[in-house]
Write a structure and sequence with these properties.
Elements (H helix, E strand, L loop, with lengths): L9 H16 L6 H8 L3 H7 L3 H25 L6 H12 L2 H12 L1 H10 L6 H20 L8 H17 L8 H17 L4
């Protein structure tokens, strides 16, 4: 029986295959067989590297969450440059790209995956949204320190509005992501009060 191709970096190639399956077939189509078929390898390859499929999914989500953390760092590097609305618009376009959007319902649908994520990262049951929330909140706090948004701006509420509203905006838009102008309009409205009340 053929065993498929040899994978030089099995974990990475299996993760990439899982992403392709997610994008093509959604969370319900993501099975160990679908992943190994997409990767062109034997099913046993996945089980050589992971104790079970939920362990594989947990590592997949944590790996992609770590990528989002790096992207959130880029948002913080933009503090004090450009406009707050443009910086947040660019961040939401990145943070709610196709892969993060595909992973969020996967986490929602799989109780065991959520439990393992919480164990791996306390408070990280919905890991992708947690990374987006942390990144946006830190950025807003830094901009408040610089006086580019009001000193009394409620960072927690602003963050929830931007992340929650951004998630809905991107998940409900099909086919493809919303135009950048639409995202910018949403962001501008969400932060308008905090920006307009900033000290002169």
């Amino acid at each position: 029986m053929p065993t498929g191709v040899h994978l030089r970096d099995a974990r990475l190639q299996l993760f990439d295959a899982a992403e392709r399956v997610l994008l093509k077939h959604g969370p319900n189509g993501l099975t160990s067989r679908a992943v190994t078929d997409e990767a062109g390898c034997a099913k046993g390859v996945l089980h050589r590297h992971f104790s079970d499929f939920d362990a594989f999914l947990t590592d997949l989500v944590l790996d992609r969450a770590a990528q989002l953390e790096r992207q959130a760092s880029a948002l913080r590097a933009a503090v004090g440059t450009g406009t707050v609305a443009d910086n947040l618009t660019n961040a939401l376009v990145t943070l709610f790209g196709p892969i993060p959007l595909a992973i969020i319902p996967l986490i929602t649908f799989r109780d065991e995956l959520r439990a393992r994520l919480r164990k791996a990262r306390p408070g990280g049951g919905i890991a992708i949204l947690a990374q987006a929330t942390t990144g946006v909140s830190a950025y807003l706090a830094d901009e408040r320190e610089l006086g580019r948004i009001a000193a009394d701006a409620d960072i927690d509420s602003l963050t929830l509005s931007l992340v929650g509203g951004g998630h809905l905006l991107f998940s409900d838009h099909a086919p493809g992501p919303p135009p950048t102008a639409v995202v910018n309009k949403f962001v501008t409205a969400a932060i308008a009060d905090a920006v307009q009340r900033r000290p002169a």
